């Protein structure tokens, strides 16, 4: 049994809010838009600009908002970024972008710019390039009963010495329900560090399992309060 | 490695696949099954007539070919007890039937993984990797990691993708398809030819079951600069390869040949050559890619190409780069023009790249 890594930061985007262990907290109601926002949401939520946020698909938007709420830029040392792994899991996959691209196929011209976002690794890449993360990168497609698999995979990467830090996330965004899939908006980003670094954590983590992300998201709520 | 299975544009069976690669054949041909697709290319590497059962419905294709490849791998491994075998399935879009039609497939590889595990009665954990074109190598590394931490004694890794109009139109919309058969690393290359396939590898902790080749190391990296284009200097692929060789505990000089990613896009081939040439100090070991023969099979590519690298280790020879006439990439990449026998073929490096800047590498040892 491996020891659990240290949790350094958590960011959450769901149907009600954007929140992070940094203390950031706002609601979609306050922002005046529905989750995961529009091209202007980044500036509205964080008071600064993100050059390419506007062109992102909804999954990538949610993921970028969650990592920003976790304040990765401040918490993750710059000199550690080459050795920071990135592990993302999703159950819905890129269904939202898939449906947009499929709809464009019925028009005169396919929506080329959305096509790359029909692959979950593209959303992962949007996060990697924002923070300069050059560690191993993994996207898992997980069944609902396997939720949290990315946390276990990231722990294994840290334990094997393949990375020193790991940014782990779960993301599921779908604007409208379709047969076999419910509408959803949830992204949770968690920054882990190898225990041997001895870094302090304010965030409790009981362990791996299907409820691990939900528990970490709840801990953010407590931190904020 | 204790078992291999494949179904490709050359037909059913890994032996047929390997024979075709070393014969210099190509499965890229005028489109037949996908002829009605409205996409800007004349060609693809489709499964040949007869490879799929007559009347097989589109939503069942990925499931069927994944099972065909998996069963062949299990058979070569002499049918080990399945209850303890874990599955890692690699795919980009798995089954898209519910996105482009009325089926239940929503492009979620975990659903396909669960079906395959149930059909084959595999009792171990079931994982699905969706890392674009690097999926296969990432899946092999994920399986190896799972075995390293004692989760399973055997892992079955299956890479699979079939041709959908959705995917072909997507590559078309990015102007990434060559209208004619692709020409990796050639100066006249104009983009990808897509293919379909499934590859399977059974990994085992037991040396007694081995086909004589093992995974010695794996490494990953991210370009962290662009989501669809590679790092202009090939830094990401260099880093992933360096990490895999380091993870294997080897020096660069221990690598006897390289199996390339080689998609035939201008940017991929140029930067892959640059990164690998720099890694090896200006001159790489003999290097070959196989997408000029199989087409780009996306989520299946990493597993199928690892099977090709295993064959090269076993034959002590590397096949030619089909479609290559005049290279314009970094001349430090030693691109093989005709089948080249090797005095020593003990260790191979396999590399792959995918959207999102994902880079992956494996070191294999015979």
Would you kindly provide a written description of the structure presented here, covering whatever features stand out?
The complex is a heterodimer of chains A (225) and B (366). Chain A has 225 residues and is an alpha/beta fold. Chain A has a single domain, classed as 3-Layer(aba) Sandwich (Peroxisomal Thiolase, Chain A, domain 1). Chain A has eight helices and seven strands, in the order βββααααβααβαββα. The longest helix of chain B is centred in the first third of the chain and has 19 residues, at 58-76. Chain B folds into two domains: 3-209, Thiolase/Chalcone synthase (Peroxisomal Thiolase, Chain A, domain 1, 3-Layer(aba) Sandwich); 214-365, Thiolase/Chalcone synthase (Peroxisomal Thiolase, Chain A, domain 1). Helices cover 31% and strands 20% of the residues of chain B. The radius of gyration of chain B is 18 Å and the shape is globular. With 366 residues, chain B is an alpha/beta fold. In chain B, helix 8 links the parallel strand 10 and strand 11 (286-288). In chain B, helix 2 (58-76) crosses helix 4 and helix 5 (135-148) packs across helix 10 (301-315). At the A-B interface, strand 4, helix 5, helix 6, strand 5 and helix 7 of A face helix 3, helix 4, strand 6, helix 5 and helix 6 of B.
Break the fold down into its secondary structure elements and pairings.
The complex is a heterodimer of chains A (225) and B (366).
Chain A: E1 6-13, E2 17-20, E3 25-27, H1 28-31, H2 41-46, H3 58-69, H4 72-75, E4 84-90, H5 95-105, H6 120-131, E5 137-141, H7 149-159, E6 165-174, E7 184-193, H8 212-224
Parallel strand pairs in A: 4-5, 4-6
Antiparallel strand pairs in A: 1-2, 1-7, 2-3, 6-7
Helix pairs in contact in A: 3-6
Chain B: E1 3-8, E2 11-12, H1 14-23, E3 29-30, E4 43-44, H2 58-76, E5 85-90, H3 97-100, H4 109-119, E6 126-129, H5 135-148, E7 154-161, H6 165-173, E8 197-204, E9 214-222, H7 235-247, E10 257-259, H8 266-279, E11 286-288, H9 291-294, H10 301-315, E12 317-318, E13 334-335, E14 340-341, E15 347-354, E16 358-365
Parallel strand pairs in B: 5-6, 5-7, 10-11, 10-15, 11-13
Antiparallel strand pairs in B: 1-2, 1-8, 3-4, 7-8, 9-16, 12-14, 15-16
Helix pairs in contact in B: 2-4, 5-10, 7-8
């Amino acid at each position: 049994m491996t020891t659990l890594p240290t949790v350094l930061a958590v960011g959450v985007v769901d149907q009600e809010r954007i929140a992070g262990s940094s203390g950031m907290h706002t609601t979609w109601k306050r922002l005046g838009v529905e989750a995961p926002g529009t091209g202007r949401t980044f500036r509205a939520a964080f008071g600064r600009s993100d050059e390419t946020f506007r062109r992102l698909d909804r999954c990538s938007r949610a993921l970028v908002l969650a990592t920003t709420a976790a304040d990765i830029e401040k918490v993750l040392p710059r000199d550690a970024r080459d050795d920071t792994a990135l592990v993302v899991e999703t159950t819905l996959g890129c269904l939202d972008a898939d449906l947009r691209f499929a709809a464009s196929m019925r028009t005169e011209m396919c929506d080329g710019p959305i096509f790359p976002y029909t692959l979950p690794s593209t959303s992962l890449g949007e996060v990697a390039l924002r923070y300069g993360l050059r560690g191993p990168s993994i996207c898992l497609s997980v069944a609902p009963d396997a939720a949290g698999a990315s946390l276990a995979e990231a722990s294994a990467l840290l334990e094997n010495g393949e990375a020193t830090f790991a940014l782990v996330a779960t993301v599921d965004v779908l604007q409208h329900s379709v047969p076999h899939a419910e509408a959803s908006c949830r992204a949770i980003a968690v920054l882990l560090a190898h225990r041997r670094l001895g870094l302090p954590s304010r965030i409790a983590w009981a362990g791996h399992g299907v409820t691990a992300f939900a528990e970490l998201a709840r801990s953010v709520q407590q931190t904020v309060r | 490695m204790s078992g291999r299975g494949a179904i490709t544009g050359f037909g059913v069976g890994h032996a047929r696949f390997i024979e075709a690669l070393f014969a210099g054949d190509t499965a890229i041909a005028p489109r037949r099954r996908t002829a009605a697709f409205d996409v800007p290319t004349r060609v693809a590497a489709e499964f040949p007539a007869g490879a799929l059962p007559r009347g097989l419905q589109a939503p069942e294709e990925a499931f069927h070919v994944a099972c065909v490849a998996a069963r062949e791998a299990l058979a070569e491994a002499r049918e080990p007890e399945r209850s303890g075998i874990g599955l890692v399935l690699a795919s980009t879009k798995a089954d898209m039937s519910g996105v482009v039609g009325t089926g239940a497939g929503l492009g979620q590889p975990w659903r396909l993984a669960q079906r395959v595990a149930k059909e084959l009665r595999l009792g171990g954990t079931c994982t699905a990797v969706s890392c674009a074109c690097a999926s296969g190598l990432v899946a092999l590394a994920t399986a190896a990691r799972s075995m390293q931490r004692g989760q399973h004694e055997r892992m079955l890794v299956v890479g699979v993708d079939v041709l959908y109009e959705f995917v072909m139109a997507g590559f078309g919309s990015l102007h990434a398809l060559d209208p004619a058969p692709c020409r990796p690393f050639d100066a006249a290359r104009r983009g990808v030819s897509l293919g379909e396939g499934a590859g399977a590898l059974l990994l085992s902790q037991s040396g007694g079951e081995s086909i004589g080749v093992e995974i010695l190391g794996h490494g990953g990296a991210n370009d962290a600069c662009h989501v669809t284009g590679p790092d202009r200097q090939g830094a990401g692929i260099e880093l992933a390869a360096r990490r895999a060789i380091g993870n294997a505990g080897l020096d660069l000089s221990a690598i006897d040949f390289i199996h390339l990613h080689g998609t035939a896009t201008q940017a991929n081939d140029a930067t892959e050559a640059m990164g690998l040439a720099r890694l090896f100090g200006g001159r790489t070991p003999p290097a070959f890619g196989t997408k000029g023969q199989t087409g780009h099979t996306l989520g299946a590519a990493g597993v199928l190409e690892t099977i090709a690298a295993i064959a090269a280790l076993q034959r002590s020879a590397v096949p030619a780069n089909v479609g290559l006439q005049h290279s314009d990439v970094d001349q430090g990449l030693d691109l093989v023009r005709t089948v080249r026998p090797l005095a020593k073929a003990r260790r191979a490096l396999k590399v792959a790249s995918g959207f999102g800047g994902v880079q992956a590498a494996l070191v294999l040892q015979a």
